[in-house]
């Protein structure tokens, strides 16, 4: 697959590594060109200067902090019409009692409003960057949950998730992104509050071993 990754931080680097190792072609951007150039040099991805030019691929991964997502969406909107755009983002804030999450629409649903002609897909958010480069933890293959409304875009992303070694799970429509963001939130909070090493990940025991399909 021909993939653009917008963002070259923890997630951008990890997914560029996994995707190139799996034989995919990757273009990568960042706010500071030197950050994307460094990841490109490490992974065999190709650095592209502008987000809009990078997004001229089959699939686009938005690996930026969600605070930057609306402005990036405005830049790539024309280039991503009719294509899968993967939202990896998570959300949390620190309140008086510690980490909190709101119960409003998911980041993915908000991104879909900013990219009405694209097929927004939620994926990779429940996996820490440390696990995105290695799908096995304690000898257990982690799950890669995928939620989307467009069946063709979802099938493409399930295949991508499978290609880098995760058990790809169809989590249902894009509205399920709210649960996927909560699932990630719990793992983040457990690591942050207990001083864990950010290696833990989700595997749904008892689910079929093949790619599951939600009703
Ligand atoms: N870290 C994790 O384990 C993890 C796991 C799952 C999901 N997520 C989610 O993944 C997203 C990225 O997290 P991260 O940890 O990778 O963040 P990060 O390390 O801070 O990296 C963010 C990247 O986004 C780039 N960026 C910001 N604004 C941009 C713009 N307008 N155009 C192009 N690039 C831009 C930054 O560029 P510069 O490098 O030039 O600053 C940076 O490379 C977040 O939404 C997070 O919730 C993170």
Question: Please, could you describe this protein's structure?
Answer:
It is built from eight helices and twelve strands. The chain has helices at 10-21, 33-43, 51-54, 69-76, 107-114, 129-132, 151-163, 177-194, and strands at 2-6, 25-29, 46-47, 59-62, 84-87, 93-95, 98-100, 119-123, 136-137, 140-141, 143-148, 167-172. The strands form three sheets. The protein has an eight-stranded mixed sheet with strand order 3-2-1-4-5-8-11-12, sandwiched between helices. Strands 6-7 form a two-stranded antiparallel ribbon. Strands 9-10 form a two-stranded antiparallel ribbon. Strand 2 (25-29), helix 2 (33-43) and strand 3 form a beta-alpha-beta unit. Helix 1 runs parallel beside helix 2. The chain is globular, with a radius of gyration of 16 Å.
What's a quick, concise take on this entry?
It is built from 8 helices and 12 strands.
Topology:
Blueprint: E1 2-6, H1 10-21, E2 25-29, H2 33-43, E3 46-47, H3 51-54, E4 59-62, H4 69-76, E5 84-87, E6 93-95, E7 98-100, H5 107-114, E8 119-123, H6 129-132, E9 136-137, E10 140-141, E11 143-148, H7 151-163, E12 167-172, H8 177-194
Parallel strand pairs: 1-2, 1-4, 2-3, 4-5, 5-8, 11-12
Antiparallel strand pairs: 6-7, 8-11, 9-10
Helix pairs in contact: 1-2
Bound molecules: NADP nicotinamide-adenine-dinucleotide phosphate (NAP).
Residues 6-12, 29-32, 35, 51, 63-66, 68, 71-72, 88-90, 125, 128-129 line the site of NADP nicotinamide-adenine-dinucleotide phosphate.
């Amino acid at each position: 697959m021909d993939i653009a990754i917008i963002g070259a931080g923890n997630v951008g680097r990890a997914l560029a590594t996994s995707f190139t190792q799996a034989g995919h072609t990757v273009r990568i951007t960042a706010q500071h060109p030197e950050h994307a150039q460094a990841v490109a040099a490490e992974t065999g991805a190709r650095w592209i200067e502008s987000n809009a030019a990078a997004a001229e691929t089959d699939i686009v991964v938005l690996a930026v902090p969600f605070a930057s997502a609306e402005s990036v969406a405005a830049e790539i909107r024309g280039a991503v019409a009719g294509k899968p755009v993967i939202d990896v983002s998570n959300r949390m804030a620190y309140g008086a009692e510690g980490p909190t999450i709101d119960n409003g629409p998911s980041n993915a649903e908000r991104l879909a409003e900013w990219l009405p002609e694209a097929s927004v897909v939620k994926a990779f958010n429940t996996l820490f960057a440390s696990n995105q480069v290695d799908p096995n933890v304690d000898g257990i293959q982690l799950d890669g949950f995928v939620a989307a409304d467009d069946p063709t875009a979802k099938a493409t992303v399930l295949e991508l998730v499978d290609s880098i070694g995760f058990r790809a799970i169809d989590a249902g429509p894009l509205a399920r992104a709210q649960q996927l963001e909560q699932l990630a939130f719990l793992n983040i909070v457990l690591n942050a509050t207990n001083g864990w090493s950010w290696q833990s990940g989700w595997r749904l025991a008892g689910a079929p071993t093949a790619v599951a399909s939600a009703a």
